[in-house]
Each structure stands twice: as C-alpha cells, then as structure tokens.
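Backbone-to-sequence.
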C-alpha cells in the first residue's frame, strides 16, 4: 500500500467535503443507500464466501455471527444510514462565543478531524457505519478491515463509491479508501502516517487494540475490549436480575457489550443463582467461585465448573460467564474497577443510594441501573450508528456518533487589533 499517495487522495477528498453543505452530504448519502440496495445480492453473496471460509478455518459461531450479513442485518445497515441522514450536521456549529475587552469577537465552532483511519475486525457493517458517520461529519475515511471480511468489504466499498459517483458534484468519491492488504504491513504504515492520518481508531479484540495503542505514532481514540460486569445487589428483584443476566450474556455473546462476569451479593445468592441457571437453560458455561458453585450444584444447575482466578477479568466472547459472590456494593465496585476495561457495567438494585454510589464510583463509559449492558450501542443511543465504544477519557467516551468525529477551531474577528 502506497500510504503517501492514498492519504494525499483522501486529503483532497476531505478538503472538498469540508466545503459541502448539509444538503449536499445528505444527497450523497441517499445515493449511497440506493446503491447499496441495488447491490444487495452481490454484497450478500460475497459475505457468504467470507462466512464459509471462516467456518472452514474453525472460527467459533459467536465470531462467525459477527461476520455474517443477512437480510435483517442488511436492513439494519440501511436504517442506520437513514438515521444519520436525518441528524443535524454538526460542522459549523458554534460551541461558544464572546467578545474580548479589546472588542475582538471570538467564536468556537465544530470542524472535521480530517482523515480518520479505522482498523477493525470481522464486522462488515462497520464499513458502512464508519463511512456514513465520517461523511456526514465532513471527514475522509481510511478503512482497514480484517482479511476474514475482505470480500464483503470490497463489495460494500464498491457500492459506496458507485453511490458517490451517482451523486455527481454532490458526491466526493475520494472521501473513502479500503486497504486490501492481507498481511499487516499496511497497519504499520497507517499507525506511522504522522501528518497524513489525523486519528486512528482500533475496533476489535484486545490484542488488536493493544497493538494499535502501543505502536501508533498518530493520535488514537482508544476503544476497549468489553470485560463488562453485572452486579446483583442484595436488594435486587432476583427475577429481574436473572432476565437481565440472560439478555446481557446470551443475546449476542460475541459483542463487546455482553457481560463476562456476574457479581452477586452473598445475601441474595441463594435466591438469584438458581433463577440465573434457569434463565441460562444450560446453554451458558458457568465458571463459579466456591460459594456460587455449591449453590448451583445444590440447585442441579447444568454446565457449571469451579472458576480459576484468570476467569475473572477475561473476555470470553462466547456462551461462558464467570460468577462470584461479594459482601457489599463497595466490594463490587472495587472488584469491577480492578478487573474491567472501562466499557459498560450494570447494577440491579432497589436501593437508590446503592444505585447512585455505583454510578458515581464505577469507572466506565456507560454505567447502568436495572438494565442490560447490551444497550451500549450507537443505534440504541439514537446516533444511527457508531465508530466504536470509546473507553478513554479524552475527547470522546462511550458510543461514538457524528460529533465524536469533530474537533473545534477558534475564529477571531478583529478590526486592526494589535497587541
């Protein structure tokens, strides 16, 4: 990959896109939607090739599910783009403004970041989501998906480019590029493209994220692996907690917002754990500490085994969960803050005081009370889509929508002012 010429093309596209009005960007996105729909059969066929290849390699079904596109997922992609089209263009928005004592007028306004690179694994929907969010916020996007989704991504990007061409002068084809490299040399080039790439986002496994964070010389917006916890307080509605546990673990176990550890207050463990086991219906492998193991054994629960220390703070991304008793909400908070990845955490409780303490003291991008962590998602938050879940504390945190891809500049108007 010739990173210099590629970034030069994208910079030209970003400069052109920065001048486009909201109406022009929306027209282009609508043309892309039309092109994606026209190319749906081809896109799904190419995706099927990727899925077949993944299964032949022995990829787990939980990870295959991330890779696979079907009619429902394709419709969801189109719907997400529709939401983005309807959202207000953030570019040019005035954040603040004031007049200095000397009479100069200062305005702080939103502007695009420029060239955004995203390095991601499996999920071909990210290809469309990342492009749509970048385009609406006036940015060019460099996509580096995994080799396991290359056929899918090539078909999607081809359809996107055809849509931008169909938009005529309102479409900026040079605003998107896909790296088709199947080794990792291009990743090195992207991470070292100082002055060419304005920001890079990793989205995928902890290994990928750590590699990007450790090796990048360009700015990184860090997204995190999802070691998410559910804490069942002693005041919790045990049935509600079991329902939330089932959803947060089983609906999509390969997602980063699925729970990996359940902490249960020792005073409610005997009531909650059998209900949890019933909700899991023998489909989840439960790795339990000594206390939980005895309670679950006495309840004749299926698929249980004693937990090892390394099971806590581990991202299973599968139908496996670690379970542990704690003595109090304070112990739960301390355990979570020492084992999590600052992604999404939840408490089930009837205590307002414990709910407030949990939300105030747990260090995570999203902290829930009496709700599943599976709601940590740009679509669920009303953003239409997301580039990822930022687990850092600078600039953007949580699901990243349009505004996360903007920065600000100060515009100062004077009248011959000198200092």
């Amino acid at each position: 990959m010739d990173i210099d010429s590629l970034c030069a093309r994208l910079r030209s596209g970003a400069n052109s896109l920065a001048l486009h009005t909201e109406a022009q960007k929306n027209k282009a996105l609508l043309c892309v939607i039309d092109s994606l729909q026209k190319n749906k059969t081809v896109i799904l066929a190419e995706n099927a090739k990727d899925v077949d290849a993944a299964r032949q390699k022995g990829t787990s079904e939980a990870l295959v599910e991330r890779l696979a596109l079907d009619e429902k997922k394709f419709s969801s992609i189109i719907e997400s783009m529709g939401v983005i089209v309807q959202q207000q263009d953030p570019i040019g928005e005035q954040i603040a403004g004031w007049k200095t004592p000397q009479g100069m007028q200062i305005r702080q306004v939103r502007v695009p970041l420029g060239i955004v690179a995203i390095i991601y694994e499996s999920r071909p929907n990210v290809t469309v989501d990342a492009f749509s969010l970048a385009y609406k916020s006036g940015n060019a996007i460099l996509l580096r998906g995994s080799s396991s989704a290359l056929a899918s991504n090539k078909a999607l990007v081809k359809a996107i480019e055809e849509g931008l061409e169909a938009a005529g002068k309102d479409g900026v084809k040079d605003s998107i590029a896909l790296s088709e490299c199947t080794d990792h040399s291009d990743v090195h080039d992207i991470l070292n493209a100082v002055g060419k790439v304005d920001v890079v986002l990793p989205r995928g496994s902890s290994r990928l994220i750590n590699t990007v964070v450790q090796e990048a010389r360009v700015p990184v917006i860090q997204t995190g692996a999802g070691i998410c916890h559910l804490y069942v307080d002693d005041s919790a509605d045990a049935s509600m907690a079991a329902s939330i546990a089932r959803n947060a673990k089983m609906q999509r176990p390969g997602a980063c917002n699925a729970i990996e550890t359940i902490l249960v207050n020792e005073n409610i463990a005997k009531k909650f754990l059998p209900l949890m086991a019933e909700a899991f219906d023998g489909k989840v492998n439960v790795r339990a500490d000594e206390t939980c193991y005895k309670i679950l054994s006495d309840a004749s629960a299926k698929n249980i085994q004693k937990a090892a220390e390394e099971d806590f703070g581990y991202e299973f991304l599968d139908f496996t969960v670690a379970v542990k008793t704690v003595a109090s909400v304070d112990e739960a908070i301390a355990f979570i803050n020492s084992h999590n990845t600052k992604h999404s955490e939840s408490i089930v409780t009837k205590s307002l005081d414990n709910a407030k303490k949990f939300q105030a003291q747990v260090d995570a991008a999203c902290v829930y009370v009496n709700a599943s962590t599976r709601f940590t998602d740009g679509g669920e938050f009303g953003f239409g889509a997301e580039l990822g879940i930022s687990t850092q504390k600078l600039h953007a945190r949580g699901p990243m929508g349009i505004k996360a891809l903007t920065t600000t500049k100060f515009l100062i108007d004077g009248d011959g002012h000198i200092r």
